[in-house]
Write a structure and sequence with these properties.
The structure holds 2 protein chains of 2 kinds.
Chain A (H helix, E strand, L loop, with lengths): L16 E6 L2 E6 L4 E5 L1 H8 L7 H12 L5 H13 L18 H8 L8 E5 L37
Antiparallel strand pairs in A: 1-2, 2-3, 3-4
Chain B lengths: L1 H4 L5 E7 L2 E7 L5 H5 L7 E2 L7 E6 L2 E2 L6 E2 L1 E5 L2 E6 L2 H19 L4 E10 L2 E6 L6 H10 L3 E4 L2 E4 L5 E2 L5 E5 L2 E5 L14 E10 L8 E3 L1 H9 L9 H11 L4 E7 L2 H11 L2
Parallel strand pairs in B: 2-4, 10-16, 16-18
Antiparallel strand pairs in B: 1-2, 1-3, 4-7, 5-6, 7-8, 9-10, 9-11, 9-12, 12-13, 14-15, 17-18
Helix pairs in contact in B: 4-7, 5-6
The chains are: A alpha+beta, B alpha+beta.
């Protein structure tokens, strides 16, 4: 499939994800990558409509219908690029030669309203030990034997994550 | 494990905490009483034949010859966790590891590394890892009249309610952990589960002014995911609990200096 054309029909990835809605936004946990993402309302709307049947132009129309406001196609493309980067689509969107890729800042300048710009914030989920409180005293890093707390920032201080 | 099993054990106990079966054995009799004080809240002795983690504690102390001291050695299953002459450090690491494994293994509760107080019938959560200053902020809130819930873990049920995790506050004084009952700060401990009213995702920086920005529920959930012990093992349970916990909460993120500034802010503007 040529994912760089307007014929691209993005499909949201479902496998390996835990998805929950919070006041119109989405919280997505990727079990395979141990990453968590928060999608603001605009990003959530676009992602939810990535059904594998709608083109970018159709997604834009759907977004316009749902928000009741005019939507630039760049908004949809920007979101799809984000989703691609975070492996949230079944098939990635590939940039075509010469395509202008707007940054978030440029998009805000174009649209004029930050809230309308898709926003995806991501973090890596901690392992059990990374979330631990480090309590061991150390002089050198070799003293730090408790899992999750391998560093000795200050001799005579506590081991740290 | 065979090698450790053969060391010779004087006493032991199996117990359950938040549904997680654990075992402890010691090479010296008479220490168990001191040890159970370090178990997580709500633990109960059990007759479980198998445990998820077996702690083997070799208590060192004074050696056979004058001037010789033996190391205290701690094993978690077959892994050597610590070798130290300092018995207080030994017990602190034991306590911390037990609590962490209970937090990671609990099936019906979600443990978030956070300080928690009750304030006008709602919970204030202060997520953060070591050295993020959460105990200092908890102590300051207690002085201001809050009810004590925890300075280590926010324990959420499947409905997103926060339960008390009643352990003494562990305050760092001159580089050492000192335990203080909440009464020292003029506070009492809470007993009822609470809804989350406020989350303060702050980092301490000396001299910083508290100018927080509000986070949306999903962004705020990330601040809690970052500190959720079981997130990799049980993401469905954890994410669902957070979804239920956060919709009506105010979530603030920022760098703070003096804890009193944050408490004044809460008193003036929130809850």
């Amino acid at each position: 499939m040529n994912n760089t054309t307007n014929g691209f029909k993005p499909r949201a990835r479902k496998a390996g994800l835990v998805v929950r809605e919070l006041s119109g936004e989405l919280l997505v946990y990727d079990r395979e990558r141990n990453q968590a993402h928060s999608l603001n309302e605009t990003a959530a709307l676009i992602w939810k409509h990535c059904d594998g049947h709608s083109t970018i132009a159709e997604l834009r129309s759907t977004l316009e219908a749902e928000t009741g406001a005019s939507v630039d196609e760049q908004v949809v493309r920007y979101a799809l690029r984000k989703f691609t980067k975070l492996s949230l689509l079944e098939e990635p969107l590939r940039a075509s030669v010469g395509e202008r890729r707007l940054s978030r800042r440029e998009l805000i300048q174009t649209i004029g309203l930050a809230a309308s710009v898709p926003l995806v914030v991501s973090i890596f989920a901690p392992s059990v030990f990374a979330a631990a409180s480090c309590t061991q005293t150390c002089t050198v890093p070799a003293d730090c034997t408790v899992p999750g707390c391998p560093n000795c920032p200050v001799p005579g201080g506590k081991c740290s994550a | 494990m065979d090698k450790i099993d053969r060391l010779g054990w004087a006493e032991g106990i199996t117990f359950v905490s938040y549904g997680v079966p654990l075992g402890v054995r010691l090479n010296r009799a008479g220490m168990l009483e001191q040890l159970v004080d370090r178990f997580p809240p709500g633990w109960k002795p059990s007759r479980a034949g198998t445990v998820e983690r077996l702690y083997s504690l070799i208590i060192g102390g004074v050696g056979a010859r004058p001037g010789i001291r033996r190391f205290n050695i701690l094993y978690g299953n077959t892994q050597k966790l610590l070798r130290t002459l300092d018995i207080e450090e030994f017990l602190t690491v034991f306590e911390s590891d037990v609590k962490l494994h209970v937090a990671a293994g609990a099936r019906r509760r979600v443990f978030i590394h956070a300080g928690v107080v009750g304030w006008k019938g709602q919970a204030i959560l202060i997520p953060g890892r070591s050295f993020s200053g959460k105990t200092t902020l908890v102590a300051e809130l207690l002085r201001a009249g809050a009810t004590y819930y925890s300075d280590e873990y926010a324990v959420l049920d499947s409905e997103g309610m926060v339960h008390p995790y009643p352990r003494p506050l562990s305050v760092r004084e001159n580089g050492k952990h000192v335990k203080h009952a909440p009464e020292i700060f003029g506070a009492r401990s809470g007993s009822k589960p609470l809804r989350i009213g406020l989350v303060i995702a702050s980092k301490y920086k000396e001299g910083a002014r508290w100018r927080p920005r509000a986070l949306s529920p999903a962004e705020g959930a990330l601040a809690l995911v970052e500190n959720t012990v079981s997130i990799q093992r049980q993401p469905e349970t954890a994410i669902e609990a957070l979804r239920r916990a956060l919709p009506n909460a105010t979530i603030l993120k920022g760098t703070r200096g003096d804890a009193r500034e944050v408490v004044d802010f809460i008193r003036r503007k929130l809850l």
